[in-house]
Amino acid sequence: STLRKTMKIGWVDGCIAAVASGAIVSVFAALINQFSISTILGGVVLIIVTYILLAPVDYTRSAADFEAGRTKRKAGPIPPPFPNSWFNVMHSWELKIGQVKPIDVFGTNLVIFRSESGNVSVLNAYCPHLGANLGVGGKVCGESIECPFHGWRFGNDGRCTKVPGQDSIPDVAKVRSWPVLERNNMILVWFHVDGKDPDWEPPVMPEIDNNEYVRHSHAVYTINVHNQDIFENGGDVAHLTHLHHSLFPSIGKYFHNEWDASYQPGSKENDDAHIAYIKVIQDQYVTPLGNVKWRLSHVKSEIEQVGPGLVYARLHSPVGFVFVFETVTPKEALEQEVRLTFWTPPSVPRFLAKFVVWGYLRAFEQDLAIWNNKTHLAKPIFSRSDKMIPPLRRWSQQFSSETIHTAQSRLHPLEG
Q1: How far apart are CA 291 and CA 78, in angstroms?
Q2: Is residue 259 classed exposed, middle or buried when 0-12, 13-18 and 19+ CB atoms within 10 A define those classes?
Q3: CA nearest 221: which of 137, 336, 324?
Q4: Of 360, 368, 348, which Cα lies nearest the Cα of 284?
Q5: Which DSSP letter does residue 176 get?
Q6: 63 DSSP 8-state letter
């Protein structure tokens, strides 16, 4: 497994860590003279256990970690590769004032930067002068980004604001600017194949937007599958019963889950046609004797599928209320970046919240080997238990357009 922690240590932190390490060694040597080795080791174990229980769970996983490329997948006809919707390209805390970063989404290269006033802008990456990538070496100057090649500057609307050495600026000196919305600690970018402006906005979660809730985890996955295969997974009750029968398949006979789910689409009358409402009930049972079962927990999940790229999940669990953001952003036709963040009210202790985080991620990862190797079927053979999938597919059609379908015919779907 290529588990990579998101924490990075710079040279300043390295110097501080070195000084701190020396101090710890000195303190440890002094303690040996005062306490027994067993007491000291017990204290070290306590510190380690405390860290495991209280530290946030932040990591990144690649598609290769979950059987991607194990088979030479035959990619069938796929839906429009990039639906018209809002997508999460980054979390707010990942982009500090004055920072510039390149991002690759929707099959193209973009640059994102936060100006000195704190505003976030997303532009096409390449300078129209001689093609330099603004996201690699570019820097923030006030409310503009400066090209690293010749110093041309571009504002948040994509128009050139400065050409060194001349007073006049050509009208054609501009790059495409993308609609951006910073909300719920996420930086959202609007994609529309025809370049149309947004006609709806995702709901605000005030407790997260105002940092009232505590973040316990941030996990990032790269998955080789079409966007639609992930969001319609929530309506696939049959797979919940089979694939997610137990978090421990080897002892599923003695520890298992039972599921139930329902679906209700939004409506134009309520201005929420872009939202699909899904309720999932999960009961966990232990069956020590094989035929007698005792319920360990009851989890009720109220899910809002907001467009094809955003999921708001409210989990009512035995340890307390847990809110999950699950975002699915298409990088290429068959490559998605999925981000999961877990939040709770301050009253929920982290060591308890981490049990929910672990269980959710464990269940999510059970799907990954399937997604990384499956093909998309436009006309599958449905069973009686698949009653939620067809309406979800019909609901998703509002996020496509004729232009997307025309463009799709010229695409060669990526292999896993």
Answers
A1: 44
A2: middle
A3: 336
A4: 360
A5: -
A6: G
Alpha carbon distances (Å) from 325 to 11, 113, 200, 205, 399: 33, 23, 19, 10, 20
Q: Which of 87, 86, 351, 365 is nearest to 214 (CA)?
A: 351
pLDDT in tens, 25-36: 555 555 556 656
Q: Which amino acid is at 284?
A: Q
If you average pLDDT over every residue of the chain, what do you get?
A: 84
> Which sign does the torsion angle of CA 117, 120, 121, 127 carry?
positive
Q: Which of 316, 294, 290 is nearest to 303 (CA)?
A: 316
pLDDT, block means (10 residues), the chain with 416 residues: 33 42 54 61 60 65 69 67 96 97 97 98 97 98 98 97 94 96 98 95 95 92 93 89 80 79 93 96 83 86 96 95 97 95 93 89 92 90 92 93 53 35
Q: What is the pLDDT of residue 81?
A: 87
The DSSP bridge pattern shows strands 144-146 and 139-141 to be antiparallel
The Cα 385–Cα 392 span in angstroms is: 14
10 Å CB burial of residue 267 (0-12, 13-18, 19+) is: exposed
What's the CA gap between 156 and 317, in Å, rounded? Answer: 43
Tokens of 108: 């193209």
What six digits make up the tokens of 305?
């599928």
Give the tokens for residue 255: 């520890």
For 257, other C-beta atoms within 10 Å of its C-beta total 20
Alpha-carbon distance of 233 to 361, in angstroms, equals: 15
